[in-house]
Fold:
Amino acid sequence: MVWLSGDQQSITVAISGSGGSGALTAGFILLAAAQRCGLYGLMMRSAGPQVRGGESVSILRLGPSPVTNIGDRVDLLAALDWRNIERFHDELALDNSSLVLHDSSAGAVPDSILASAAEQRQIDFSRHAAEHSDGRANMIAVGVLGGEIGLPLPALADAAETLLGKKAAATVEAAKACIATGYRGTVAQRETRADGETLAQRETAAPAFSDSPRRWRISGNAAAGLGALRAEVGFVAAYPITPASEMLEWLAPRIERAGGTLLQAEDELAAVNMLVGASFGGVPALTATSGPGLSLMTEGIGLAIASETPILVVDVARGGPSTGLPTKSEQADLNQALYGLHGDAPHLVLAPLDVGDCAYSVEWASRLAERLQTAAILLSDQALGQTHAVIDPPPRCPPVLGRKRIYAASAQDSAQDSAQHAEQPSAPDSPARTSTQTPADSIARYAPSPDGISPMPSPGEPGYAYTAEGLAHNAKGTPSSSAADHRDQLSKLAHKLKAHDYGDGWARIDRGRATKHATVSADKPIAADQPAPATISLLTWGSSWGAVQEAANRLREQGLQVQTIGLRLLAPLQQEALRAAIEGTRVLVIEVNAGAQLFRYLNAERVLPLSARSFARPGPLPLRPFEVIAQLQDQLNLSPQAQDSGSKHSHKDSHKDSRESVATASQKGARR
Amino acid sequence: MVWLSGDQQSITVAISGSGGSGALTAGFILLAAAQRCGLYGLMMRSAGPQVRGGESVSILRLGPSPVTNIGDRVDLLAALDWRNIERFHDELALDNSSLVLHDSSAGAVPDSILASAAEQRQIDFSRHAAEHSDGRANMIAVGVLGGEIGLPLPALADAAETLLGKKAAATVEAAKACIATGYRGTVAQRETRADGETLAQRETAAPAFSDSPRRWRISGNAAAGLGALRAEVGFVAAYPITPASEMLEWLAPRIERAGGTLLQAEDELAAVNMLVGASFGGVPALTATSGPGLSLMTEGIGLAIASETPILVVDVARGGPSTGLPTKSEQADLNQALYGLHGDAPHLVLAPLDVGDCAYSVEWASRLAERLQTAAILLSDQALGQTHAVIDPPPRCPPVLGRKRIYAASAQDSAQDSAQHAEQPSAPDSPARTSTQTPADSIARYAPSPDGISPMPSPGEPGYAYTAEGLAHNAKGTPSSSAADHRDQLSKLAHKLKAHDYGDGWARIDRGRATKHATVSADKPIAADQPAPATISLLTWGSSWGAVQEAANRLREQGLQVQTIGLRLLAPLQQEALRAAIEGTRVLVIEVNAGAQLFRYLNAERVLPLSARSFARPGPLPLRPFEVIAQLQDQLNLSPQAQDSGSKHSHKDSHKDSRESVATASQKGARR
Amino acid sequence: MTPAMIPSLRARDYLSEVKPIWCPGCGHFGVLSALTKALAYLERPKHEIAVVSGIGCSSRLPAYLDCYGFHGLHGRALPLATGLKAARPDLTVIAAGGDGDGFSIGGNHFLHACRRDIDLCYIVMDNAVYGMTKGQASPTTPPDWTQSALTPHGTGIPAFRPAAIALASGASFIARGFSGDPHGLSELIARAILHPGFAFVHVLSPCRTYRPDDQSSWKQAVHPFGEHLLSATETPINAAQGSTPALQIQDDGLGLGILYDVPRGPVSNNATLGTSPDRAAALDAIEAELEA
Amino acid sequence: MTPAMIPSLRARDYLSEVKPIWCPGCGHFGVLSALTKALAYLERPKHEIAVVSGIGCSSRLPAYLDCYGFHGLHGRALPLATGLKAARPDLTVIAAGGDGDGFSIGGNHFLHACRRDIDLCYIVMDNAVYGMTKGQASPTTPPDWTQSALTPHGTGIPAFRPAAIALASGASFIARGFSGDPHGLSELIARAILHPGFAFVHVLSPCRTYRPDDQSSWKQAVHPFGEHLLSATETPINAAQGSTPALQIQDDGLGLGILYDVPRGPVSNNATLGTSPDRAAALDAIEAELEA
Ligand SMILES: Cc1ncc(C[n+]2csc(CCOP(=O)(O)OP(=O)(O)O)c2C)c(N)n1
Ligand SMILES: Cc1ncc(C[n+]2csc(CCOP(=O)(O)OP(=O)(O)O)c2C)c(N)n1
Ligand code: SF4
Ligand code: SF4
Ligand SMILES: [Mg+2]
Ligand SMILES: [Mg+2]
Structure:
């Protein structure tokens, strides 16, 4: 077990313990220490059913390049005790090259651990802790693991100081002392070990600890909150629900600093209607919820769409159906997000692809909703929201024009081009509300226009008073049951979404850099860095992106021409762009739900070739890269060796065959 | 304008008038009179936006064979006055062979009527009414129209007596007198007309009025209520909403007669959860609502599915999105019914195909839900629910075993075969609850079983106490977040729906009888009555069935081999059966919504050939047969003449082409 | 309302061109007229007023006014109004709807809007029936009313007491008016709008079509509220330690006037907009914290 | 509860084998114990009891009992219980949940269940916080409690008064217990179950984790309700013509005992099951009418 020596690009470390053992705190300190050394990392956590104080596990993966997912297995487990460890068996994924450190006083090693054939080592976490007054075993573990991983001691100490900062000074000092004890013991022990590496060598090899501006340490829920602030969301109303509450709790004090309002509503019905009210008032509005709350919000989302009042609903999804798995992840709310409204109600559906992308996607979703006067649903999930990661600061979303104001309605088209590239990403296409200019005559609120977007005044603007309407209505907003009015307004709703130019943000497409063995060969020309055209597309969305991305990297190293496509804009689907992207490739659609929801959706939209296959399996376990690789080989009948001899993909597959694949693929997924 | 003379198979009559004019009552009397003569018929109505007392129109179509839809046009309009008649212009569909009867005192004929080039005739409805004390113009109209149509006077009088029965005797007598006046005037007038038909000839030609058991006169909403009673639904909870309230209002007094309970809830959230409670108690339960209510119920429906507690939700759909078109029809809630739940939540979705089928479908949906311990959503709509029709009594649904009881769990498989064909359609597969037998040991509520159905005890049965659970759970029902438990229970939910044998009820498939010109030719062998294999499939669902069916009949008369498929069971989709049914045909998928929701769904499930096309257009106008025919020619590039020379359909269509068709077809629909 | 004040806009200037769909004789006409009178009296500029509603005959009100308006969802007028007012405290926000909308499907929001005490005026046009859906019993329908086919034996349950619930929930202003007395009603509405907090105006507004007798029977039965009692002491928020909060309600449901009026402070958990902090600086500072 | 009565089942016989997930010291343990005691005292057969709940720590209760149970949706325990009782009047139906479940998201059902007065016992385990979702303010949280990050300045709005709302809504039985006094609580629950109508039991049941001080402060502050007042005269359903219905509430929220107890008749709009009419004959008759 040596820090990133040789080929090892990352290390996965787990810390487990029963209630009060501090396994989570230990994980957070290690993650913060990694951040302090210019490393990347992420940390997921898993807890038993107890509300508080139950056993829990933190799993971290750290490395010098961006960490996209938790990986296939755990390299190193520190077990503070063994209570209910079986609960986490699936998540721990130990194997015969793992190392398990456990407290000698914790009793016999459980069968599930023994069965993994991992190497065992006893460390007297609690005895060492007892050497310090106020000492705690989890801090010894931080030191031991820090040493094992090779994080420098000052980084560990600084991280502990920051994270425990609110506690009494004595507690912080005790923690630092324990960390040092654990660290020195481990490193000293290694000095005596067969690999012969010396302490000095280790310390040289360790990444440097610096005070210079660091990468961000942030959870997906916090990043989503940040996206809201970046989008100038000024009003949030919500009802608490796991795992979305943390996004709201992050936002509450911060939106106030930015001049906005957050209101805890009596229920989700209230929350979504409060958004509609605030947004009608001209203030960008957002809520966060999870599946059960999203169900309660569908009527209100429909009102936002029909009345053309922008709102953004962030669904931090958990396992379903019904109350389901409140603390665990699944990508099973896609159907509801896409299709969950009564009537024909076109709207936006987006999903972030990683922790940092929560900021980008939320900002973009909010700005698109504002521009297009519609509801946006953003599908985050527990695996993104509650994962803490060390990342590079995520970019701002592409520029999107702000709400179409009534003053500028005529000058609209000319203004658009220049404003699109303005520095301010959301310049409203009109003078500010304070303009004294008064219009000659009022423009109908729901008037037709070439881009399908009718100018939208805000209360307070004289001369434009209108009543927003959820009934079918005419261009003025007066209720109408005429077939012509209904048809006109329905096509306006559909058209404005279709007609908008979403640019490149609709997906991440990665065709890979030149593969590793290509770059090391010095005689290859630089053009070899250009990715070769892909023959395989791994198509996915949301939190599955990270594992798929890693799977693709490995496959490329094996010489396969693989591209990954992560859809960020799910609706309206960018059919043409997606068709072009997958043209001529074999497609595997990957998602974590039982119903193959994305696969079915893409079929519904007729963008997939008949040969496309689905890998869909339910949560709550996080997707692992090896699963993707196994499915690829299984479903596309494709091993790395076989590919060169395999014929290039075409649409020749027998029709019968392909029509059966929905059931087959998803059943396979479900059976896993 | 002669009653069913020659080829005319039906007549469409409209009556219009402003608030209080009694246009609806007149329509109802004509419909009841037709019922009294052994005719079939249906009546739709349309009203202005006023809550009450606004102008309204009733449109009836009557004929000697079953009337499936309102037809292409109106033959005969009686306008009691002209106020706001433009509102109904689209629905009236007059043309140059229509006849318009209008009151001379109503003022100038509006431009919209003149533009139709319909023949005009003045009838002094109000002057004739004034001849009778208490006389009313609408009753004169009943007489005039009855005479025009050729309904016998006694039938009109009897119908008036039944329908006005609760009013004062004088009112009823006045009405009958007015009807006679109108009738005699019309018939006498015809005697003097050029066609030379005599009164005696007319009276002979008129269908006989008899007292013998008649066909049923019933609305779709009432038929749905009847289906509930047939299914032994014992509990209804609901919140009023147009156009579902009438189903509830029909049921309230009748379910009480049958020993059940109906409860007006405070909102739809309460209603659906009340059903779950009642059903948990062992009593089949149902609610009726419309789009906005369905939105509010999705969370509760998810609970029913996850906790495996049977319920039935009838959605009498109206135009959407949001509050939409409360009094008008659209088939736009299919998406929500199919996909509207968070998490993977497999359930039943059914839709009745005509007014009478509301009884069959509701009964079947309720019994399936009971058997499969899941939620069923039944998609009726305003066009079915508020249409009153004269029909043959609808059949009972096929036998379905009742709830799986715990006692019989072991003997399950053997009992199933025999009980399946038992006379009692819903024999529960176990002894009654009163059995004193006590089990040796309790069976886990959510235990796996070959058919995926776990036996379900009801409270009151000793020894089987369990807690129904909406969280992910293990076989006992204890909450569990283990991946294995989650996967097992999810696949059980999916499997029980897939594994059930739904028999033939999943669709109506009509390949037509021998076409008309085939039967008249005497030298054809009887085998010619066997329909020829279809080359075209018109695939539809719900209230569109009637117009599609009539379009198919006309196309067949033109020599095309057309089959119609009306899907009754929409989920789980019977993929294999549907693929077999459409095999080798060109498919046009027809529905009344903007989003081509059925077409997309069928694509999602990969059952359609790539050559399949969509005809989807929004409501609220009822679908007319000619629209279907026009679309068929347009989209399948197919005129009756062209077909013989056209090559037999295959899947050769260019891929590109076909992938574009979703957008193309639906946009075409939306643009209409 | 002193006669010296001459409003710059007349009541009718607040009316839009949309013709009400209400039945002739509907009580809601009186409410519309009273509301326009009140607005004119208060001289509120039309564009600074927003009237939001749910669904029902009563909830059609906003479209008939030449103000900003929102015809929202059945039962959800109050949250919509709350969101609007919280985001735009500069506006005069009025919520309106029916007894079904406000007390049946919207009951929870009624409770919590009273508690939250945000500065809104909420007008419920109570006709003791669901007019729009053609005559079913509402929470305020007498228990023995058998005219709805849905409850053929009557509801059998006592009518909902809006004023009592409002008081128990913490509303700071409660008034009752009668649509047959638009002048008195307009004064109540004006006072409700001026009240700095949640002001509930319960209006007896008969449904001509489904409860045709109410118009005349209410006309006879209404009386000034004076002799009755609505009082609350020591609401939990300002209760002295050890004191016992008390509520008293004596109300036959037909007493007209201001039933209760105790101003409370504004809601404190809302950072208000418009204090215009430097958004960009705040965002930079928040982002910088992520490096710690 | 005379000592002569010796129950045939002991309280612990009503417990299932499922181990509560509650934190050590959680008030909800006391409620579980009181409920089993009450059931044993009443000698209700386990299979004739159904306990239904919403979502929350408190709502986990049903699984811990060896009765029929339903762990339903957040906020929807009461409608579920109402449907069950209406369909199966032979069962003893108990609804249970938390203050968030019952008074925030479930507030509307609380109002209407009180009005409807169906024979249910509803136990709310009020800990003035959302325990399950990790400590946000609930409707009964004091306005100045700043421990939730979601309301960093406190909610700023007065706490919800469950007993007052129940009374104003028409509940016929209201009691308050303390989970720290399981014996007294079990007697209240037993009486609530025996009450023929809607019986609301408000239980002070502290959350050890998110409001650690309540346990001791409530223990000191609770007192018998005796000196306080909850009264209702002349509810609309039985009001004499011309009389004025009155409600009086004097309640510091900490008085224990039976606060109000006025039996009312059962709901009349429900045709009860079990009168076993001839279903088939009824159906035939109804179908025959369609020919008219
Ligand atoms: C979610 C939802 N449920 C039901 C309805 C149907 N609905 C429309 S208005 C209404 C009741 C209106 O009654 P009230 O609020 O008293 O207003 P009124 O018509 O009597 O003025 C109902 C039940 C709806 N639009 N939405
Ligand atoms: C529709 C919905 N919204 C939100 C939640 C999240 N949620 C679960 S329990 C709970 C609050 C529980 O508080 P309370 O009812 O007081 O019970 P306690 O945990 O305090 O005993 C919430 C908000 C949910 N499950 N469903
Ligand atoms: S139905 Fe009643 S409430 Fe509705 S408009 Fe007519 S009179 Fe008014
Ligand atoms: S969080 Fe609070 S309410 Fe929940 S179990 Fe723990 S102590 Fe009890
Ligand atoms: Mg009303
Ligand atoms: Mg609580």
About this structure: Chain B has a mean pLDDT of 86. Chain B has 25 helices and 21 strands. Residues 507-666 of chain B form a domain with the Rossmann fold fold (CATH 3.40.50.920).
